Amino acid sequence: MKKVLFLQIKGKSKAGVWFVNKTIGEELIKKGYDVTILAIRNNPGDIKLEHDPKMKLHTINPIDLWEISRKKDIKSTKTFIKYIKEHKKLKEDYKKAKEYIKNLNPDYIIASHYQCLDFVPKEYYSKTLHEQHSSMSDVYSKRANLKTLKKYNRKIFGMIWLSKATKNEADRIGLKNNYCIYNPVRFNFDDKADVVNNKKLITITRINNTEKRINLMIEIVDEVLRKNPEWTFELYGSGYIDENTKKLIDSNPQIKYLGSTDVAEKKLLSASINLNTSIYEGFSLSILEASMCGLPTVSFNFGESVFEEIIDNETGYIVKQNDIHAYKNKLNYLMNDIEKLEKMSNNNKKFSQQFVVDNVIDDWISLFNKIDNK
Question: Are residues 159 and 217 in the same domain?
């Protein structure tokens, strides 16, 4: 039985990386593979991850959190000492991770974060694929990320990008052995949301203001909903909501923040339009899941993958980044054009089929076969 090892920096995480690895891993198990997910450290809290019991999960250091100081954080002798201690402990965790990998002796390794490449033993480079879960623009903005990719590019077997456009950009800047495999949607069914009668906007996401800009989303929704009193908005996810945004939510009874959900498909089927206000995305799972449920998405242009997740004017609207006025107009128009809304809903059900795991898994197995042949 061939062994597949996924590497993550965080365990006990319900972020997009976990759901992608879980979905792919469970499908590989059905195909007869042995699958393990290895994390360096855990997230805080008693987070329970539902998965196929045949899938093995292991965390190297379940006590410490992934909160590592960076060189730019060094401001004094105290912060310098803190930096040294944290990186010494992390180095010990990496050493243990290398030992774990050697003992497991996997046939294929998928590094889900660029930091994971630093604890792959050299003798396993030829069996290693790095899957970049962010956009190329995000890579450019993080010097350590790009530096690491260039360091390992010609050593490991290859790099997987989540969109064709990102893969092409990786080729352009001189990275080698690049592949594109779309993220799989977590569920597949024939049901479709009653988008005309639900009259509900929705977002299911990781909540923050720097990347996802939930504060901006609430401001937009607040204004649009006041012009459409029969509509509501539901926000699902975990993270930090600032005080001003909380006040705005509390002041508008049409807006509801309902915390995390483990039944995304049920919530999406009760809605009409999905919203995205991100500055950048690698390949948005929330858009894929909304599409599977027949929900069009109104989104800012968050980077190279957006045009492969949304067909502008057919499965949703792509608005120029930071053109808030245009975003409000597109959203308001779609909420009030029943025929357009229904047509986009039908288009999404057809469009979403290319992202079901059955159609994605063959690409993964094809890469495994190339590793075997090499």
Answer: no
DSSP per-residue letters across 189-256: -S----HHHH-EEEEES-B-SSSS-HHHHHHHHHHHHHT-TT-EEEEE--B---HHHHHHHHH-TTEE
**What is the full DSSP assignment across 51-113?**
--TTSEEEEEESSS-S----GGG--SHHHHHHHHHHHHHHHHHHHHHHHHHHHH--SEEEESS
Count of CB atoms situated within 10 Å of the CB of 44: 8
Q: What is the pLDDT of residue 77?
A: 86
- Return the exposure string of 45-64: e unless at least 16 CB atoms fall within 10 Å of the residue's CB, then b: eeeeeebeeebebebbbeee
Quick one: what percent of the chain has pLDDT higher than 70? Answer: 100
Range of the domain at 60: 3-183+356-373
Question: What's the mean pLDDT when you consider all of the chain?
Answer: 93
pTM: 0.84
Give the CA distances from residue 87 to residues 68, 69, 92, 97, 154, in Å, rounded to whole numbers and listed in that order.
Answer: 7, 8, 9, 15, 26
Q: Within this chain, do residues 270 and 283 fall inside the same structural domain, yes or no?
A: yes
- Do residues 346 and 364 both lie within one domain? no
Q: What is the largest CA-CA distance in the chain?
A: 65
